[in-house]
Amino acid sequence: MDVIQTPDACFENLIDFDYPPHFAEISDDEGGTLNMHYVDEGPRDGRVVVFVHGNPTWSFMWRHQIAAAVAAGYRAIAVDLIGMGRSDKSTKMGDYSIARHVKWLDEALFEVLGLDQVNFVLHDWGGIIGLRVISQRMQRVASVVMSNTGLPVLSPDEKPAKMGREPRMLRFFQLYVRYRKNWQHWKTLRNILKTDVPKAVIAGYAAPYPHKRYLTGNRQFTQMLPTRNDNPMLIDNWHALERLKSFDKPFLNLFSDKDIVAPKGFRSVRPAIPGTRAYEPVILPGGSHFLVEDIGPAYSAELIKFWGALK
């Protein structure tokens, strides 16, 4: 892989994000290694919470939830997926796949860090990647919170259905991102938000990407959206959901009512996953897809409430 790292100077003086960096060295699948960045705050002996972001975000999105979790006595870990944030970035789009993201996250959390009884918080692509990891490590997971995401599936025995209008619209978005050389995803994020946030917040989302060559991982995520019924992710997701049909640990769907990306994504896991049945989805008012920016305090309060009720 042709791997680059965002210069450390890009991460100086970010708003509400002065957490020291940590790195897990993992295999790149080609005989080399990659460094996955993660934040690790709170007591070492505290119950472990792991935050997994999606696209186009990075661990910066969880800055206030990290603080809330630590204040409540938890050990809070927030990763940067490979190609995002402070993690290593391949400059070739073909180096990224959902299967590889699953392998990289699994290796970092459970082989390098050796975590156990993890309380996961998943958002956007972090939902698909995180659920796939969880389906392989159910005995080492304590609970799951899933937000504004879903798990699209296709049975290997099912004839693929004709794609509808929504995937066609996403296909236009894919083409736009693929060929727009000066695409700045932090501006897209800003336009989706329902609240005005300080310029410093948008600058935080832009910080890891001082040049377009650092954006390859973000671009590839848009190309992996399920706009084609032959997307290999769909059958892999189906196998993960089959395994998760035996996952009976606490599983909360925590969504927002102004999400335009996956507003009903919880339907993809309820009631198939037993752990979801004891928890009605919580739909918070006023939040866009990036609900942690719009309604962060309400979101953090629901997390603390959920974890506090666990045995």
Structure description:
The chain is an alpha/beta fold. The chain has one domain (3-308): Rossmann fold (3-Layer(aba) Sandwich), CATH 3.40.50. The chain has 10 helices and 10 strands. It has helices spanning 63-71, 98-112, 125-136, 165-179, 185-192, 199-206, 216-223, 232-244, 291-294, 296-308; strands at 3-4, 22-27, 33-41, 48-52, 75-79, 89-90, 118-123, 141-147, 251-256, 282-284. The strands form 2 sheets. An 8-stranded mixed sheet has the order 2-3-5-4-7-8-9-10, sandwiched between helices. A hairpin with a 5-residue loop joins strand 2 and strand 3 (33-41). Helix 1 runs parallel beside helix 10 (296-308), helix 3 packs across helix 8 (232-244) and helix 4 (165-179) runs antiparallel to helix 7. The radius of gyration is 18 Å and the shape is globular. It starts with a strand and ends with a helix.
- Mean pLDDT over the residues: 94
CATH C-level name: Alpha Beta
Residues in helices, as a percent range: 25-40%
Unreliable spans are none
Separation of the first and last Cα atoms? 44 Å
Number of DSSP strand runs: 10
Order of secondary-structure elements:
EEEEHEEHEHEHHHHHEEHH
**CATH topology heading:** Rossmann fold
Q: Describe the strand arrangement of the main beta sheet, using strand numbers.
A: 2-3-5-4-7-8-9-10
